[in-house]
Amino acid sequence: MHKLLPLPFFHVWAYLQTQPLLGLTATVCTWELASLLDARAGHKAVTNPTVLSIIFLAAALLITRTPYSAYFTGAQYVHFLLGPATVALAIPMYANLSAIKRHFAAIIISLGAGSIAAASSAMLIAKALGAPAQVVVSLGPKSVTTPIAMGIAQNLGGQPPLTAVFVMLTGMFGTIVCTGVLRLARVSDWRAQGLAAGTAAHGLATAHMLRLNQTAGAFGGLAIGLNGIVTSLILPLLVRLFGI
Amino acid sequence: MVRAIMILLLCQLAGTVVQEGAGLPIPGPVMGLVLLLGILAWRGGPDDELRDTANGFLKYLGLLFVPAGVGVVTELHELRANALAILIAIPVSTILAIAVTGILMQRLSRGNADA
Question: Which residue would you say has higher pLDDT here, A5 or A33?
Fold first, then answer.
């Protein structure tokens, strides 16, 4: 990229790389473009704006050889809002509080089973295909929301940055397939759909569910927190059980 | 709107203080979520301002995951080295978890829907 640009443009480019403006503008513009494409395509699962935006921006960074840290200088302002937005999940959850209380046993059993299924199958498949132990352990918490997942990976001798990437890939894949898988499994109940999305593919799939139905979003939000707790308790046992 | 943002930030801050202070593995924002849920249950629900602001945030929840997702570019080498294992393990385990959780939850919650 640098060699292709005439000198004055190179100066501007080098300057912008040290400033938050470009990364932030690129994130917002890419999101708008992805939303437009998603709307044009009739909100298909494969045109999810989060997934499209990540692909476009990652490609742009690789093509222009921009380091991720330069991009994140600007993108961190968007990233920061994830905290208050997580707290805001309390509002749809409160609206469904009586349903959550009523079905609490069902929630714990379904979520526990889904959590064990996710972690065991991911680790056993990777182990069978010859992935090194560090990669296998890093895959274990992939269905859990990023900050909890990284902490779990750290405790078990995995690589937290790699886990963060697995969490994102799981979220992107889960967002694309969740509606189709749930339809094939004949799961039509919004509470079950939301819980499944949040358990298997954390906040990314929950954001997708929230666009479809408020109740599904509330159960997704509940699943994000609960699966974080359940996986941090269960994963050390699974790792020992599978001899990883 | 500013008052609603203040409430969200204060809950996150309190959650983060508890998490860091007690060394809990649960992230601060998730603790903040539990705290706000407790406050809402105690106060009898959110007012219009808090509800509108929270829904405004949640409408763009998908955008907020983009910067972290782009971080995929930092681990391309490791991903390429274990491409086959990753490309099979992640899709299979994710589909399995969605199906297991969804089917069980639908069966079990229907079972005690009248209770």
Answer: A33
Closest by Cα among A213, A172, A217 to A195 = A217
Q: Which residues lie below 8 Å from residue B9, measured CB to CB, with a gap of 6+?
A: A84
A174, A203 contact by CB (below 8 A)? no
Q: Where do runs of H (alpha helix) occur along chain B?
A: 2-22, 28-43, 48-59, 61-64, 66-70, 76-81, 83-111
Q: What is the DSSP-derived secondary structure letter of residue A116? A: H
* Alpha carbon distance A118, A241 (integer Å): 15
How much is the ipTM here?
0.91
Chain A residue numbers touching B57 (CB-CB < 8 A): 81, 84-85, 88
Type of residue found at B5: I
Residues A85 and A90: their CA atoms lie apart, in Å, by 9
Q: Which of A38, A188, A21, A142 is nearest to B92 (CA)?
A: A142
CB contact under 8 A, A147 and B71: no
Contacts of A91 in chain B (CB under 8 A): 36, 40, 46, 50-51, 54-55, 58
Domain extents in chain B: 1-64, 72-115
Total residue length of chain B: 115
In this complex, do B111 and A106 lie within 8 Å of one another by their Cβ atoms? yes
Q: Per the CB < 8 Å rule, is A50 touching B106?
A: no
Residue A147 one-letter amino acid:
P
Model confidence pLDDT, tens digit, residues B87-115: 999 999 999 999 999 999 999 988 554 43
Q: How far apart are CA B22 and CA B25, in angstroms?
A: 9
* Token pair listed for A55: 């692909």
CA A41 remoteness from chain centre: 23
- What was the pLDDT predicted at B100? 98
| φ, ψ for residue B94, nearest 5 deg | -70, -45
Residue of B nearest to A108 (CA): B105
Q: Which residues contact B70 (CB under 8 A, 6 or more apart)?
A: A54, A57, A58, A61, A68, A71, A75
